[in-house]
Amino acid sequence: MWGLPPSTGVDPLLRKKGVHSIVRLSSGSRRGDLCAFQVLRTIGQMVALRSKIALTCLAHGEIRVYGRRSVLQGLAYGFLVAGGAARPTRAAVSLAAGPMPGCLRPDGATLWLQGNAPAKLRVEYWDVLAPQKRMLSGEYALTAVEDYIAYLRIGGLGPSRRYAYRVLLDGVVQVIPEPLLFRTSGAGGIYAPFKMLAGSCAYTKDAPIFESMARQRPDGMLWLGDNVYFQRSALLITGEWASAEAMHNRYRLDRQAAALQPLLRCTHHYAVWDDHDYGPNDADGGYTLKRESLDLFKRFWDNPGYGLPDTPGVFTRFEHNGVDFFLLDDRYHRTGDQMLGEKQTAWLKDGLLRSRGVFKVVAGGNQMFNDDNRFEGWNRFVREREDFVRWLSANRIRGVLFLSGDRHFTELLRYERPGTYPLYELTCSPLTSKAYKEAQKASATVPGTFVTENNFASLEFGGGATDARLLLRCWNIQGKQLWEQKILAANLQ
């Protein structure tokens, strides 16, 4: 265990936190690193502490990440690689996270993954119905500049097919316990049954709920915001949202969690964000690092698109088996009187008008139709929401329902509209964050759907084009069903 020499002019409490960080690092704890570097950002004269932290990190083979950070904190890099510590032996190249299939496409697929060192990546893949015909992707270089992250795009595939694959790094097949599969979506908007999972608020990634979700083998997963939590510093002065590098590190640590890998690998993923994976708590469009935060979101997720050419954000849309999904951005353009902003709202209206989907699923981070909500939600932006609801009724848009997260409880809301069908909103939260057990049911809550424990939801689209139905189910950590509700497309007209 590292010790520290006597020092003057340093707060004893900060010094104690630094020593504690070194102890945790020596035992392999990366949370110790986060604590220590937050301390360093505040106290510049703790050279001995910087040195010991850097050396301890190097002993764990993290020369690239922590060497760079130590330089940023004023420590000479030459000390690390020359007089301070021996350069660690390069470990064998392997996967650090993933692979994770991205958004579904009818003619191809994207695989996201992260390695632990420079390597040449290729993927061997085959149609599960013709395993004797193997295909090999082009080569992709994993580089330190890109944090060893790859978006490997595979094209020229047929619609509605399933493919198995394996990952090769520097020509070596990676041993992965889960079967690796990706799908292609159907062509032409033809309605067919499929299942999606949904959830929000994942503070920690070491929970068994992800294994329960993976066991369901869904066709896709919708992450409904607060998928990552940028955390406060040890001194509670600021947080990771104040530094693009700290936010990047949070994404990296979360994405590499072992418990998360089975879910990442088993299906295709889509995401929206909310405040905690966008910036500080309750952040709006005035957040100063919102462009950097958007760049990070794009680096770790593979959505079909990101905003419009003149309107950045995470909002986008996709179609799968005759169902249209609209993913909203409730943060980037938020001001005092609007949650979505004029251009995003116009985009949403235009998309709904053009949609031929049997169901049209609109998903966002904040609740939208809970008028009893005392916290953040679309009910706080009365003019914008009511304008949209009136427009929806006037244009007789069929089959619309909503998904949201944020609230640390789950409920199905039924929002009545005079003269037309009610709007259903499934709020699903939390995956792993602390449940809000003191929460109260809203007046619009469908009886039997209020849940105040960790959970996730499934959306099972069934039937045919003339009798389409959606079965909503809520599941606990162990994968036990808590409730189910059926919604018929015929009742959303």
UniProtKB/TrEMBL annotation:
Q: What is this protein called?
A: Gll0363 protein
Q: Which residues form the DUF7800 domain?
A: 94-179
Q: Which InterPro entries match?
A: DUF7800 (IPR056702), Metallo-depent_PP-like (IPR029052), PhoD-like_MPP (IPR018946), PhoD-like_sf (IPR038607)
Domain PhoD-like phosphatase metallophosphatase, by residue range, is 333-450
Taxonomic lineage: Bacteria, Bacillati, Cyanobacteriota, Cyanophyceae, Gloeobacterales
Which Pfam families did the record assign? DUF7800 (PF25077), PhoD (PF09423)
Name the PANTHER family for this protein.
CALCINEURIN-LIKE METALLO-PHOSPHOESTERASE SUPERFAMILY PROTEIN
